[in-house]
Amino acid sequence: MTDEPAGSDRPGVDSGPADGPGTGPGPRWGLADAAVGYVVGFFVSALAASAWTLGSGSDRVGLAATSAGLVGLWVGLGGAPLFATLTKGARSLRRDFGLQVRVWDAPVGVAIGLGSQLALVPLLYLPFRLVNPNLDRQLGQPARHLTALARGPGVAVLAVLVVVGAPLVEEVFFRGLLLRSLGRRFGQAWAVVGSAVLFGLAHYEPLQLLALVAFGVVLGVLAVRTGRLGPGIFAHAAFNAVTVAVLVASR
Q1: How far is CA 223 from CA 108, 125, 174, 243, 244, in A?
Q2: Sign of the CA dihedral 124, 150, 63, 177?
Q3: Is residue 1 domain-resident?
Q4: In 3-state terms, what secondary structure has residue 200?
Q5: Which domain holds residue 127?
Q6: Predicted TM-score of the model (pTM)
Q7: Three-state DSSP state, 92
Q8: Are 178 and 12 in contact (CB under 8 A)?
Q9: Mean pLDDT for all residues in the chain
Q10: Is residue 77 part of a domain?
Q11: Which residue has the higher pLDDT, 8 or 209?
């Protein structure tokens, strides 16, 4: 993608209309668009997963039902930024939300993602491990449940969903639409913290909340400092890839 002056991509700074940054009023999208997108995604996810399960005639929630639910969630999380930019912004995900990738984003992002997964998260949970020897098993239970659903070609489907799809959609929503909406109203520092907390809560995993919020802060700082989502997308992908690789290899 082509470069653009950094100021027009900074979170919390209004982008101009499609004919150029700063040439007119800022975008009209905001927190309401993010809220509607999340609610829509939540209900579509539940409906898609339920419909697939009922259609299969099985009470067991398998990889197909889980995948349907995840894609349903992306309808809202991915659809909200797209709708916002087309109807209320610059008609560009790059200019409104920083969806831009540069060459160095991959190595930097991967290094940050691996460091967060292999160093930051273990450090955060070190005090809790001293009082709960079973903490590691409890923390990994949701991911083990997900990987247990995958067999044969299902492993590739799981990898695409978790390592490719989730980082892209979630970064555009949480560090694009949500963070920038919060930044315009409350400032960048509160936007980073707020988007990180909401990112963690959206996963509905109480034990993993601390790690998810901390990683959300890392991703938010990346988005603010670079003005782009590229580094965060690669960091998010690497973070998720470690979990999938370890759990698949240990089955």
Answers
A1: 13, 25, 10, 23, 25
A2: positive
A3: no
A4: helix
A5: 8-249
A6: 0.86
A7: coil
A8: no
A9: 86
A10: yes
A11: 209
